[in-house]
Amino acid sequence: MRNSNTFYGDNYEPDHYNDSDYDYEENDNRAYKKKCKSQKRKRIILWLITLGIAAILIDLIILLYTGRIWFNSPDRKEYPIQGITVSSLHGEVNFNALELGNISFAYLKASEGENFVDEQFKSSWENSKDSTVKTGAYHKFSFSDDGKNQAENFIKTVGKISSDGYRLLPAVEITKSGLSLAYSPKKEDVVIELKKFCKAVKDEYGENPIIITGDKFYKEYLQDDFAGYTLWIIDLFSKPDSINWKLWCYSPRGKQNGFSKSKNYINLSAFNGSRQDFIKLQYK
Fold it and tell me: Same domain for 194 and 241?
């Protein structure tokens, strides 16, 4: 029988092995260039997505910083009585402008620690007499000073409080800020000194001061000894829901007409209750 290879000759090579016309190098280059283009497109898309996310985050930060948006925004229908806290940082106060801005109350910083007196307090306190905006005075509590001495500083600064229905109960702000953020004061020391402050204020004005503080600080330091006090809770990210609060500081980035130093932001607060309930905060 004749060998099939003999029929085609000794140099026979099957067609499927005959690739002399196929340029492997050229096709490899094409595949490589195609892969590079695909990877480049992916990098460009990823870069554009990253830029878009960064732009959104920057816009969000700017909106939060300028107070145009905030984490909390209490509905005026639910909380019609809203107010602010004021200090020398805001300069002279035009209370008529506050009235036009639907501000129901303003607490003015009077003092801090044993010796500090807010330089704008006296002027603002006097100017508020002819306004329908209810005003109160508050003291910034210092962990390093004696509670009774702090109360004496506050009382000396504020003086007698008129019972004309336009003044609100005294208040004390006790929060960790500044240097106090670096350490945790002992609970027993805080309780002792704050009790001394509150007793001296009550002896002078006949009422316990409103306590302005954060929810966490209240739970850790105060709730066992100051449960009966009117609470003004600072919660910048959500509505207070774990304690019986009457006032809520919901934003530190408020903008309001009526201040000579208009570039500085204002703490915004809401009262939790009806207008009849609000009367109970007025000094009698």
Answer: yes
Measure the CA–CA gap between 251 and 234, rounded to whole angstroms.
Answer: 9
| Residue 276: CB atoms within 10 Å | 7
C-alpha distances (whole Å) from 70 to each of 51, 207, 236, 238, 242 are: 24, 34, 8, 10, 21
Q: Are 268 and 243 in contact (CB under 8 A)?
A: no
Collapsing DSSP states into helix, strand and coil, what is residue 8? helix
Q: Is residue 29 part of a domain?
A: yes
CATH of the domain at 140: 3.20.20.80
- Angle (CA) 140 142 148, round 5°: 90
Cα–Cα distances in angstroms (integers) from residue 167 to residues 17, 31, 105, 172, 181, in the given order: 102, 82, 9, 15, 33
pLDDT in tens, 113-149: 999 999 999 999 999 988 999 999 999 999 999 999 9
pLDDT number for residue 190? 97
Helix-, strand-, coil-residue percentages of the chain, each rounded to 5: 40, 20, 40
DSSP at 120: T
Note whether 61 and 86 are same-domain residues.
Answer: no
**121 and 44 part of one domain:** no
22, two tokens: 């196929």
